[in-house]
From TrEMBL, chains A, B:
GO terms for MF: methylmalonyl-CoA epimerase activity
Protein name: Methylmalonyl-CoA epimerase
Keywords: Isomerase, Metal-binding
Stored Pfam families: Glyoxalase_4
Coiled coil: none
Family per similarity comment: Belongs to the methylmalonyl-CoA epimerase family.
Residues annotated as domain VOC: 4-134
Enzyme class: isomerase
EC number: 5.1.99.1
Source species of the chain: Mesorhizobium retamae
């Protein structure tokens, strides 16, 4: 069922500063920021050739990453995103196995314009898992 | 400078249980455990096609992931590993930019038999970064 790693997301308190670290200190290919108000974040994608890092900064009130950054003020790894061929089939299989799907269980449209779902960290070795339709 | 994402490492309190979640619940390709006593961990690699997840369980006294698991008893994302073509040139460039290299600054041999270094999380958006010679 599980496909490629689409991205690793890192929540950061200062997107511009983190972008400079990845571009200048690490010498990576860093894209321009994209504001995603419907997700409460501004994102910057870093192209690593085989996959991506997604830097996330809170946007607006009630950002879903605000609490994470209160606990981790320097930033930190926030989630991993795996691709699946059929997100509804994956959701149903996961729910049947007892895993918890976050929210109302219906996919939303993610940063790449594709359906995504999030899974409860406690069911996946303490890691917030995003699934994205490949 | 920065090459591919070699792996995302997830520290777990119970490697067998986490392997079952990835193999059976998520349907991933999960390899056999490898004990790495010189690194204080037992590892399981999960092949995602484009990159890998590395599950880490403490091995022996003074495991370098023991403190992380005390803070995160369910487990959690521990580090990311990026490939570089020349690890000594990368280290020297990073040190010149003011970034902190952990340990004595000399590469050790990692889980893939290649030289690796770790960089201070505070210099990289709160994320522990491993560099591996490609």
């Amino acid at each position: 069922m599980l496909g490629r790693l689409n991205h690793v997301a890192i929540a950061v308190p200062d997107l511009a500063a983190a972008s400079v670290v990845y571009r200048d200190t690490l010498g990576a290919k860093v894209a321009m920021p994209q504001a995603l108000p419907e997700h409460g974040v501004t994102v910057v994608f870093i192209d690593l050739g085989n996959t991506k890092v997604e830097l996330l900064e809170p946007l607006g009130e009630n950002s879903p990453i605000a609490a994470f950054l209160e606990k981790n003020p320097s930033g930190g790894m926030h989630h991993v995103c795996y691709e699946v061929d059929d997100i509804l089939a994956a959701r149903d299989r996961l729910k049947a196995s007892g895993a918890r799907v976050l929210g109302d269980g219906n996919p939303k449209i993610g940063a790449h314009g594709k359906p995504v779902l999030f899974l409860h960290p406690k069911d996946f070795a303490g890691t917030l898992v995003e699934l994205e339709q490949a």
